[in-house]
Specification:
Elements: E1 2-4, H1 15-23, E2 29-32, H2 40-52, E3 57-60, H3 67-75, E4 80-83, E5 89-90, H4 95-105, E6 109-115, E7 117-118, H5 121-125, H6 129-140, E8 143-146, H7 149-157, E9 163-164, E10 194-198, H8 206-221, E11 225-230, H9 236-245, E12 260-264, H10 269-276, E13 281-284, H11 287-295, E14 300-304, H12 308-313, E15 323-325, H13 330-342, H14 350-367
Parallel strand pairs: 1-12, 2-3, 2-4, 4-6, 5-7, 6-8, 8-9, 10-11, 10-13, 11-12, 13-14, 14-15
């Protein structure tokens, strides 16, 4: 079993990062998210913003709650705060809620684009402090475009009128429209079809999930070459346990267990999507492992380990046939993968994502009318 690691390319670390924001007068949009913490899905939001609004954005890490820094950002004339994707609007009281409130109190204009919401019924019924605080912030926002219909409906319960934006990572689609190119499929290491997989912490019965995932990997490994992608640093441990239980322990594999590679992608969604395009089918636990595989045009099954999976899928027509619920049914997962290999086209949703991405670009251009800067977005005009 071979493991490969990317070079760390965090866009939100180092003095040079903030020097660009202060000195480059075009960079008037602060993009806020959970950046710099080894989670590919969050980094994808920042990359999408950088490509859609070239030369205008800077990403801010949650840890940057230093009064002197925020004063510097404000004095530098950065009046816009874009809260992008991820399930940032939730029932906890995280530091980023304090930070966003602080920036709004300074007079910053706030917009939500592709952001997800997650509150329990108890938090809603009792109007938990976070519920009330987010409602106040969203009421002050100049635009509220959320990840999917479920988030929009939850905002309505707050009394907030929101629009369905779709996941912010859809903006990474390279051909916005129905003419999206099919994925580039390469043969596996031994000429067999290559299957992409993603596992990690399921936030449920972890032992049951790892046992089912190990059975799935063992069954797939007998017939296919496998590429396992780790997209959250904390998921490397569970992934290694699953592969060991499936008989892929490093240094102990037999010749029929040689066709597996582990790739760790924490920072660069473009590099991840390039790897995924070498797979004929994909199954992923983490939302943006499966989600970015869909953006890349690969037939994909998403494990719906949290409600946000369905919020992500509803703009794509719901597609329950592309969702697998927990506890993971190994036989059903195998049948779905084999079905995608036999007839891949029904499981490809990239054309629909491309159409949504074109609409997203139009929303961004209306919200930030100087969005093209000196460069051109990868998505073109809408």
């Amino acid at each position: 079993m071979q493991e490969t690691y990317p070079s760390r390319t965090s866009r939100t670390r180092g003095a040079g990062h903030f020097a660009r924001f202060v000195l480059d007068r075009r960079r008037d949009i602060e993009v806020f998210g959970w950046f710099g913490y080894g989670n590919l899905g969050d980094e994808a939001m920042l990359v999408a913003a950088e490509e859609a609004l070239p030369g205008r954005v800077i990403g801010t890490r949650m840890a940057m709650r230093v009064p002197a820094l925020t004063r510097l950002l404000w004095q530098a004339g950065r009046p816009e705060l874009l809260v992008a994707g991820g399930t940032l609007i939730n029932g906890g009281t995280p530091g980023w809620l304090d930070y966003i409130e602080h920036r709004v109190a300074q007079g910053t204009r706030i917009s939500f684009m592709g952001t997800g919401m997650a509150f329990t019924e108890e938090e809603i019924a009792h109007k938990a402090p976070a519920w009330t605080r987010w409602a106040r912030l969203m009421a002050q926002a100049r635009t509220v475009h959320l990840r999917g219909p479920d988030s929009v409906a939850m905002a309505a319960r707050m009394g907030i009128e929101a629009q369905d934006f779709g996941d912010f990572a859809f903006l990474l689609h390279e051909n916005a429209g129905p003419g999206a190119a099919p994925p580039l499929v390469r043969s596996g290491m031994r000429g067999r079809p290559r299957i992409g997989l993603n596992f990690g912490h399921c936030l449920g019965d972890q032992a049951q999930f790892e046992a089912a995932a190990a059975r799935l990997v063992a069954a797939l490994g007998a017939a296919y070459d496998l590429v396992v992608h780790v997209v959250v640093e904390k998921d490397l441990g569970p992934t290694r346990r699953i592969l060991a239980d499936a008989g892929f322990a490093g240094g102990e594999r037999s010749p029929d267990r040689a066709g597996l590679v582990v790739e760790c992608h924490y920072d660069d969604p473009r590099r991840f999507m390039a790897s995924v395009r070498g797979c004929e089918a994909y199954l992923g636990l983490k939302l943006h492992a499966a989600g970015l595989a869909m953006v890349a045009g690969v037939p994909t099954q998403m494990i719906a380990y949290k409600p946000k999976a369905r919020d992500f899928m509803r703009p794509l027509g719901g597609r329950e046939d592309l969702l697998l619920d927990l506890p993971l049914d190994t036989d059903l997962a195998l049948a779905r993968i084999e079905g995608m290999l036999a007839d891949p086209q029904p499981a490809r949703v990239s054309a629909r994502i491309g159409a949504i991405a074109a609409r997203q670009r139009a929303v961004l251009n209306r919200s930030y009318p100087l969005g093209l800067g000196e460069g051109e977005s990868r998505l073109g005009t809408a």
